[in-house]
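pls read this protein.

:::
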Amino acid sequence: MYVVVCYDITCEKKLNKVRKTLKKYLNWIQYSIFEGEITLSKLKKCQNEIAKIIDKNQDSVYFYITDYPHLIEKQIIGQDKNPGDIFI
């Protein structure tokens, strides 16, 4: 499956922990955006790790999940921060 993750974390210390966790599983695209191929079990593990870090009353982490990444059209204005992705 293919996942795009974006987040809004209020605490700098937690932000760095979330970023470090996501880097273990996905490609860091830009600031608070990650994307990449991941198995369901690794996705669940990643989500569990993040759930332990964030403050659920203040922070937000969004997971956009698809089994059909070839159906997603990605358009970029400006510099592509991750030119090695799977989108055509």
